[in-house]
Amino acid sequence: MSAGKGSSSKRIVSKTKSPSPLVVSKVKPSPSPPKRPKGDAAFGNASPSSSNRGPSSVSKRHRAGQDRAEKADCADQEQEEDGQDEEECSPGRRRSVFTLKQFQLWLDKEVEENFNGWNGLERSKKVTDGNKKLEAKHVSSQAGSKMALKTMTKAQYGRAKYTFVQQAVVTAAKLQSHEKFADIGSGIGTVVLQVAATIGCVSSIGVELCAGRHEIAMQLKESFNQWVVAKDRGELADRVEFFSGDFREHAIFSKCRDADVLFVNNAESIFGMRSVAEGSYTLDWHVARLACGMRVGSRVVTFEALTDLEHPHFAPCFERRDYLSEPGATSWTEVSQKQTKFFCYTKVGEQWTCSRCTCVNTLLRPSRSQWGESLHDTCEICEGDPAGHRKAYSIRSRLNKSSQ
Ligand SMILES: C[S@@+](CC[C@H](N)C(=O)[O-])C[C@H]1O[C@@H](n2cnc3c(N)ncnc32)[C@H](O)[C@@H]1O
Predict the structure, then answer these.
(1) From the CA of 262, how far away is ligand 1's center (Å)?
(2) Helix (H, G, I), strand (E, B), or coil: what is residue 352?
(3) For the stretch 306-315, what's the b/e string if a residue is b when 16 or more beta carbons lie within 10 angstroms of its beta carbon?
(4) Domain contains 240
(5) Which of 10-19, 100-109, 199-208, 343-352 has the lowest mean pLDDT?
(6) Is the shortest distance between the CB of 256 and ligand 1 below 6 Å?
(7) Atom of ligand 1 nearest to the CA of 151
(8) Co-location of 185 and 228 in the same domain
(9) Is position 381 within any domain?
(10) Of the listed ranges 5-9, 128-132, 143-147, the one predicted with least confidence
(11) Looking at the structure, do residues 160 and 220 belong to the same domain, yes or no?
């Protein structure tokens, strides 16, 4: 497969036209936002009966009663919780969220008290000790990411900064409180906690390969739970989950695929060729595979473009928007205050049509590789007939008929 192993497709990116300093360019103008399937809970217009997040049927009377109870509940809580933002109260969707400032104050204080500040956290034994375990496990099995293993002595390896996380997740990806969020390579977990606290989304999960970073994330989560339980009766605490391991592992991969917004801090090509053994698929390719399996309407935010998603065949399925980050978006650019490009991909379709034989193809297809499925960027019918000798694409019409 051409696009799989870190190759780049030749998609032309339009020049900057937008007056807004944020949006740099837009690859493919979309006439309208992605169609939201009726009743799909992922889009927030779901009726309780169609959503797996609500009861299967709720009578009007019961709902009205519930409404009143929820509103009263919210009013009580507002008085109790000074300075905490309360989101609109609607049945089954009561949310308490914190401002960015409140989260930032809590995290900075937490790191100061328990790790002797951000510099102390960098020297934490959790990182060095935890990562020795990882090295023993992954180097022998060859399953780990080469780059992650090399850089595992750093706790805040490229950590995304507070304001950038808001810019990427709120402004670009427009994560809503009824949606799910996942951070691929969650490091010490600060992005996952920030998103849970400030957006109050249905779930906020992170997966991290380096055991030491994961341990710090778990310690921060414990303190986070205590902080939010005091303010929120534990609602937010239940929504955060950290997984230790490789995001390519089947069980974790499936969890991440269920997210509405994926955040992938792959800055400095850390998920590219430099991170994997020669001849194997890059981590960016796996992120692209993940994106292909997500539902229509989901978004993926990355620092490096996912070139595998930009194969011309996939044009009807993904829309890319380019942004310019705030100065110093990660710990790597904190000193230089450099601005970095980042991207937001929205999945807008599940299938693409071959321009030559008009066969309809899916984005993924089963493969014999250990990953079980691959990106499907070559046409199922034309692939075996590159010169187009077969005039009547009988298989195509058969396939097209059976899919109707
Ligand atoms: C630049 S850091 C980002 C940390 C955090 N997401 C943030 O933005 O602050 C990238 C993280 O990805 C992790 N990583 C690398 N390969 C991974 C893999 N295959 N599965 C899970 N995590 C991985 C690294 O260990 C590293 O902590």
Answers:
(1) 13
(2) strand
(3) bbbbbbebbb
(4) yes
(5) 10-19
(6) no
(7) 25
(8) yes
(9) yes
(10) 5-9
(11) yes
Q: Which of 137, 138, 145 to mutate to test the pocket of ligand 1 (most atoms within 8 A of CB)?
A: 145
Rounded distance from Cα 277 to ligand 1 centre (Å): 17
Is 50 exceeded by the pLDDT of residue 15? no
Q: What average pLDDT score do residues 381-401 get?
A: 61
For atom 1 of ligand 1, which residue has the closest CA?
158
Residues 297 and 317 in one domain: yes
Is the distance from the beta carbon of residue 214 to the nearest atom of ligand 1 less than 6 Å?
Answer: no
User: In which band, very low, low, confident or very high, does the pLDDT at 400 lie, cut at 50, 70 and 90?
Assistant: low
Q: Say yes or no: 394 and 314 in one domain.
A: no
Say yes or no to pLDDT of 1 above 70: no
Domain span at residue 373 reads 360-403
C-alpha of residue 66 to centroid of ligand 1, in Å: 42
- Could you tell me the pTM of the whole model? 0.75
Which of 161, 165, 184 to mutate to test ligand 1, by most ligand atoms within 8 A of the CB atom? 184
The DSSP code sequence of 7-67 is: ----PPPPPP--SSSSEEEESS--SSPPP--TT-GGGT---TTT-TTS-S---HHHHHHHH
- For the segment 170-198, the average pLDDT, to the nearest whole number, is 96
Note whether residue 48 is domain-resident. Answer: no
For residue 153, give the 3-state DSSP assignment.
Answer: coil
Based on the fold, state whether residues 180 and 296 are members of the same structural domain: yes
Q: Are strands 299-302 and 341-347 parallel, antiparallel or unpaired?
A: antiparallel
* Residue nearest atom 22 in ligand 1 by C-alpha distance: 185
- φ, ψ of residue 61 to 5 degrees: the values are -65, -45
Instruction: Verify that 366 and 311 share a domain, yes or no.
Output: no
Q: Is 185 in the pocket of ligand 1 (CB under 6 A)?
A: yes
CB of 284 closer than 6 angstroms to any ligand 1 atom: no
Count the Cβ atoms, other than its own, within 10 Å of residue 134. 22
- Give the mean pLDDT of the chain: 75
Task: Give the chain's domain count.
Answer: 2
**Is it the case that residue 6 has pLDDT exceeding 50?**
no
Nearest-CA residue for atom 8 of ligand 1? 160
Per-residue pLDDT, 111:
94
187 lines ligand 1 (CB under 6 A): yes
Task: Verify that 380 and 294 share a domain, yes or no.
Answer: no
Domain-embedded: residue 54:
no
- For residue 129, give both structure tokens: 């000790």
**Could you tell me the CATH number of the domain that includes residue 137?**
3.40.50.150
